[in-house]
Design goal:
Bound molecules: 2-oxoglutaric acid
Largest sheet: 8 strands, antiparallel
Enzyme class: oxidoreductase
Order of helices and strands: EEHEEEEEEHEEEEEHEEEEEEHEE
CATH architecture: Sandwich
Number of domains: 1
Strand content: 35-45%
Organism: Latimeria chalumnae (Coelacanth)
Number of helices: 4
Cofactor: Fe(2+)
Number of strands: 21
Shape: globular
GO cellular component, one term: mitochondrion
Subunit structure: Interacts with the ASCC complex composed of ASCC1, ASCC2 and ASCC3. Interacts directly with ASCC3, and is thereby recruited to the ASCC complex. Interacts with OTUD4; the interaction is direct. Interacts with USP7 and USP9X.
Distance between the termini: 50 Å
Length: 290
């Protein structure tokens, strides 16, 4: 069993109407309990489910699968709503909150069109080992401070589009978190992507909360756990998750998620339509370099 993984497959059924409640973890949830997991099972645990129409009821007879290297799959349609503690470690709990239909489809349709046409999209150039290449997506930055990632610097842009300000307000109201910045991504088709990374730049400080809102075609948001130091960067047997993010879905990443996990949106084999992803964050001024 050395290289095998034991994983819990969450089983259950859909029942009754449930009230939508999303509160910041500090206000509403207990940290660290992994109630339906086995001692050996590193998989994610569904803590609580709250959906507009139906609620997922956990079935205690969940079976433990022994498989070499499985990928867990969290559906993001209404039935996937809930809070997922995806790992617990020395750095704390890594947690996802998923809210399908955060924006209703009709509203999401016109928002998508407005954002596609009115955001000042730009294709940045990466330089890696002396070779420059165009980022396989378009981006835009909003916030009073600059943002640097992968040696790209986004200049401050305090001119928030009214629709983006409205979405920020709506997310802040529902989650109880506040954000001062936004990185927008436009995936023009299935060939556009973002590679494995964590949102862990120093300007995001420790345990950043990232609120990620998606519009347009569904793309799979993949996550993989960072290997322990003794694995020397070998990701072969790390825990993995797939979260399909569809039109109007809000994903919140909290706790140690950026410290302990990486994420990406891979290219697709089959073509996809355009997708816009908005990642709201809080940026802090970086200490002056000496
Ligand atoms: O498009 C997404 O869902 C992810 C975007 C992302 O990883 C980022 O902006 O850091």
């Amino acid at each position: 069993m050395e290289d095998k993984r034991q994983r819990v497959r969450v089983q259950g059924s859909w029942a009754g109407p449930a009230k939508r409640t999303v509160l910041p973890h500090s206000a509403s949830r207990t940290v660290g309990s992994r109630s339906h997991s086995t001692a050996a099972g590193p998989g994610w645990v569904k803590k609580e489910s709250s959906v507009p129409e139906k609620q997922f009821v956990f079935d205690a007879s969940s079976e433990v699968q022994k498989i070499a290297c499985a990928v867990q799959y969290i559906p993001s349609f209404c039935r996937g709503n809930g809070t997922y503690e995806i790992s617990t470690g020395a750095t704390g709990v890594s947690r996802l909150q998923l809210l399908g239909n955060f924006i209703e489809p009709k509203e999401a349709d016109w928002m998508f069109e407005q954002l596609r046409l009115e955001i000042p999209w730009k294709q940045e150039t990466h330089v890696r080992q002396g070779v420059s290449y165009l980022e396989p997506r378009l981006t835009a930055w909003y916030g009073d401070l600059p943002y640097s990632y992968s040696r790209i610097r986004k200049e401050p842009n305090p001119h928030w589009h009214p629709l983006l300000s409205m979405l920020k307000d709506r997310i802040e109201e529902v989650t109880g978190y506040t954000f001062n910045s936004l990185l927008c991504n436009l995936y023009r088709n299935g060939k556009d992507s973002v590679d494995w990374h964590s949102d862990n730049e120093p300007s995001l400080s420790v345990n950043p909360v990232i609120a990620s809102l998606s519009f347009g075609d569904t793309r799979v948001f993949e996550m993989r756990k960072k290997p322990a130091p003794e694995k020397n960067g070998d990701f072969t047997y790390v825990d993995r998750l797939k979260v399909p993010l569809d039109h109007g879905t809000l994903l919140i990443m909290e706790g140690a998620t950026q410290e302990d996990w990486q994420h990406r949106v891979p290219k697709e084999y089959h073509d996809r339509g355009a997708r816009i992803n908005l990642t709201f964050r809080t940026i802090f001024p970086e200490p002056a370099k000496r």
